[in-house]
C-alpha cells in the first residue's frame, strides 16, 4: 500500500511539474515584448491593435508592442503625412512608449519589427537592430534596391540574427487555396494587382511586392529570368521558371495604395483555379509571432531574395527595352553568395 501511495505521489508531482513548465512557457510566450521601428505606415496601427487588444476579434496572442521609434521620411509624402497620426494612436490608445532612438527601442524589446514604409532607411535601421542581436521582422519593401536587400541579409547571417520578411498576401486564404489546388507544380500562373510607382524605388518594390509575393507563393522558387513589357499604365512581367513554367505579373500602375484589385489564376496540370477571396494581416502576424518564439523564419533568405531579384530584374528589363534578364546575374551583381543564387539559365541549343 505504501508503495502505491508513493508512486501516486510521484506521478502527481511529475504532473504538477509538467503543468508548471507549460504555464511558464505560455507566460514567456505571452510576454514577448515587441519594438516597432517606423510609424509611417498603417501596419504599425494594424499590427498593434491585433497584439495589444485581447478584445479585438483578430487578436493574436503571444506578444505585445511596448515601444516604438517613429522615424519617417520628410521627402516622401506617403511617409511624412501619416507619421504623426499613427504615432499618436499607438501612444495614446495602446500605451506604446515612443522612444527617441532605435537603440533604446531595442533595449526595451525582445524582438523588433522594422515597418518604415520607405525602403531607403531599412539598411541603416537593420544595422542597429542586428547589433542588438534580437530577431526582427522586416516589412516590405526589404530595401530600396536588391543590393541593399542582399547586404541586410548578409549582415544578419554573419551575426546569426534571425530575420524574416514577407508580404501579407502570402498567407491570404484565397492565395493559399490557389497554391494548394494541386499537389503538382502549376504549368503557369497569372497575377495582377496595384503597383503605384514610388520615387527612389524600383517600380515593383513599393506595392507590386504584394502581387509578386502571391505569384511566388503559387509558383514556388526556381525563377530563372524575367522580361518586361512596359506602358505608362501597366507593365507585364513574365518570369521563366525551371521546367519551362511561366509566371506572369500584370502590374497596374494607376491603381492607388489600398486598392483591393488583386487576383491570381493558376493554370494547373488538371484544372484552372482562380483566387476566390483575399485576407488581412492576421495570418501573417501569427507567423511573425511564431517566428519570434522559434527563431525559425517561414520564408528563407534564398526565397525572399529571389522575389526581390525578380522585381529588380523587371526594372533592368525595362531599362533595356524588354530584354530577358537573368535573376542569377542580378543577384551576383548585388553581392549574393553562391548558396543564395538560383540556377543559371539553360544554354540555348544551336
TrEMBL record:
GO terms for molecular function: nucleotide binding. It comes from the Bacteria. SUPFAM superfamilies: NAD(P)-binding Rossmann-fold domains (SSF51735). Residues 1-29 form the signal peptide. Gene3D superfamilies: NAD(P)-binding Rossmann-like Domain (3.40.50.720). Keywords: Signal. InterPro entries: Gfo/Idh/MocA-like_OxRdtase_N, NAD(P)-bd_dom_sf. Pfam families: GFO_IDH_MocA (PF01408). Residues 86-161 form the Gfo/Idh/MocA-like oxidoreductase N-terminal domain. This is Dehydrogenase. It comes from Brevifollis gellanilyticus.
Amino acid at each position: 500500500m505504501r508503495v502505491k501511495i508513493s508512486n501516486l505521489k510521484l506521478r502527481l508531482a511529475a504532473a504538477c511539474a509538467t503543468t508548471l513548465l507549460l504555464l511558464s512557457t505560455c507566460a514567456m510566450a505571452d510576454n514577448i515584448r515587441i519594438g516597432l521601428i517606423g510609424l509611417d505606415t498603417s501596419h504599425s496601427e494594424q499590427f498593434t491593435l491585433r497584439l495589444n487588444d485581447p478584445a479585438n476579434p483578430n487578436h493574436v496572442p503571444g506578444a505585445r508592442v511596448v515601444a516604438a521609434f517613429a522615424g519617417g521620411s520628410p521627402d516622401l509624402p506617403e511617409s511624412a503625412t501619416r507619421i504623426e497620426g499613427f504615432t499618436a494612436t499607438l501612444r495614446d490608445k495602446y500605451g506604446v512608449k515612443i522612444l527617441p532612438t532605435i537603440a533604446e527601442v531595442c533595449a526595451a524589446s525582445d524582438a523588433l519589427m522594422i515597418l518604415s514604409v520607405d525602403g531607403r532607411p531599412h539598411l541603416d535601421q537593420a544595422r542597429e537592430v542586428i547589433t542588438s542581436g534580437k530577431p526582427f521582422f522586416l516589412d516590405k519593401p526589404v530595401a530600396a534596391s536588391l543590393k541593399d536587400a542582399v547586404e541586410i541579409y548578409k549582415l544578419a547571417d554573419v551575426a546569426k540574427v534571425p530575420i524574416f520578411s514577407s508580404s501579407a498576401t502570402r498567407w491570404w486564404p484565397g492565395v493559399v487555396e490557389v497554391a494548394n489546388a494541386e499537389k503538382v507544380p502549376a504549368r503557369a500562373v497569372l497575377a495582377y494587382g496595384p503597383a503605384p510607382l514610388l520615387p527612389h524605388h524600383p517600380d515593383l518594390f513599393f506595392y507590386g511586392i504584394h502581387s509578386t509575393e502571391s505569384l511566388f507563393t503559387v509558383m514556388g522558387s526556381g525563377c530563372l529570368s524575367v522580361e518586361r513589357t512596359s506602358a505608362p499604365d501597366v507593365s507585364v512581367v513574365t518570369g521563366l521558371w525551371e521546367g519551362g513554367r511561366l509566371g506572369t505579373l500584370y502590374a497596374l500602375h494607376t491603381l492607388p495604395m489600398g486598392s483591393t484589385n488583386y487576383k491570381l489564376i493558376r493554370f494547373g496540370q488538371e484544372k484552372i483555379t482562380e483566387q476566390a477571396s483575399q485576407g488581412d494581416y492576421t495570418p501573417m502576424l501569427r507567423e511573425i509571432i511564431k517566428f519570434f518564439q522559434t527563431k525559425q523564419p517561414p520564408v528563407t533568405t534564398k526565397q525572399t531574395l529571389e522575389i526581390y531579384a525578380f522585381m529588380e530584374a523587371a526594372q533592368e528589363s525595362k531599362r533595356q527595352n524588354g530584354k530577358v534578364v537573368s535573376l542569377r546575374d542580378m543577384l551576383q551583381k548585388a553581392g549574393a553568395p553562391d548558396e543564395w543564387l538560383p540556377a543559371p539559365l539553360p544554354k540555348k541549343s544551336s
